[in-house]
Amino acid sequence: MGSLGFWRLAQADPGWIAAVDPDGTEHPAGELLARANRLVHALRALGMKAGDGLCGLVPNGVDGLTLYLAALQAGWYYTPINWHLTGPEIAYIVADSEAKAFFVHERYAQEGSRGAEVIDPGRRFSFGVIDGFRTAADLTAGHPDTSPPDRTAGAAMHYTSGTTGRPKGVRRPLSGLDPDDAAELMTFLLSLFGMTPGRPNTHLVTSPNYHTAVTQFGGTALHMGHTLVYMDRWDAEEMLRLCEKHRVTNSHMVPTHFKRLLSLPEEIKHKYDLSSLKWMIHAAAPCPVPVKWAMLEWWGDCVYEYYAATEGGGTIATPEAWKKHPGTVGSAWPISELLIVDDELRPVPTGTPGTIYMKMAGVRFEYKGDPQKTEANRLKDHFTVGDIGYLDEEGYLYLCDRKADLIISAGTNIYPAEIENEMVVHPKVADVAVFGIPDDEWGEQIKAVVEPAAGVTPGPGLAEEILRSLEGRLAKMKWPRTIDFIAEMPREPNGKLLKRKLRDPYWEGHDRAI
Fold this sequence. Notes:
Number of helices: 18
Protein name: Acyl-CoA synthetase
Radius of gyration: 23 Å
Distance between the termini: 51 Å
InterPro entries: AMP-bd_C (IPR025110), AMP-bd_C_sf (IPR045851), AMP-binding_CS (IPR020845), AMP-dep_synth/lig_dom (IPR000873), ANL_N_sf (IPR042099)
CATH topology of the domain at 6-165: Rossmann fold
Organism: Sphaerisporangium dianthi
Pfam family, one: AMP-binding
Region (Disordered): 139-175
Mean pLDDT: 90
Helix content: 25-40%
Largest sheet: 9 strands, mixed
Low-confidence stretches: none
CATH architecture of the domain at 6-165: 3-Layer(aba) Sandwich
């Protein structure tokens, strides 16, 4: 194989700045390589072997990147843990992943310590100082920074946020490949977007690294020789400043980011030089068509979209393809296939919504420890995450909603995402969620929860104004019956809306019909 892969690149050019921490500290590739190598030697000395796993509860930055790079060359599974979880939720993942080492950053000492109770005290390590943990610096002290023997490719094992029950680890068989060769194969994903290896290229990490796509896109950009610039928490103007300062060429974003960027004052939007942007890739939630048009007008033809799942397979929409098919999430990757089926699992005609099944050539996965769940979501070689959508004549996919969010009112299927996309473009709406609540007559009625834009007063007048704006754009039967207001929408930092948190209170004491 060629000359891609972090470890090869770092040996060839140890002075290349591989990563920049949120505080601005620059890390040359040679230093990062040495840290990852020492960590492999140290954990092997504790008895870790290929196929074992380790967990990290760490913020965005080089500490987590070191864990990832160590695992990927020692044949380990690396599981980054969501830092918003509580002690018992963290403990569940540490135990379920059968972690042989658990690393916690001092910032998350409180919940991390509670989560660590399920693992042997000799296998708890900290970045910074935490009571009852051995520091990572102490763990690696005295170990060589030479390349470890018997290198073999490891993998990230992410836990899905899952809409039902406990999260599940998505585990792929290890390839047995040389780590650099495996890394080079990973770069196929970014080449789908036309992304090129080498310098000068900079990837901005905008979202928490415990998300699959964030790890995947950042890790792959690094293997292509791009510099990673980490944000600690996302802020619209700060993102623009970093894009100018580091001449950012690519990033991975979500539609919520676009909405916040577009609401910046005009003078701020045009204050920064964004001419370096080439591949600004978004996913994770449907993007309202007017929002996407506005981003393309502002940033030019560098806004790419894709639809995929942790489990594998997906679609891609180039800027040109999206302009010809507004609203699409793209057509299938060359190695991926789409299948849309009805409730009887029969393929549906073009233009008809159904459950989306995907398949990716040569990719198998399992939900760790749950063969039933793995099989339940499969249809032969295809699998589904429960999304509903349809294909047009040219094979472009359009998303309707998640099956779990479908509203059935008076026997009609109503897709909340369609209503949300129309409401969110109102200038006084910062964010919106639509879902069904109990209705004795209709089964379910449509409820909207709105986060008003900054400085806008919520109340009946605003609710009326938002509803009137739907006139002529949305059939009356799809209008929310009522609108409630909320100070801040419960979203994960990757933009995923925690709709259950909003919906559940309305369903207390009712049996959910669907």
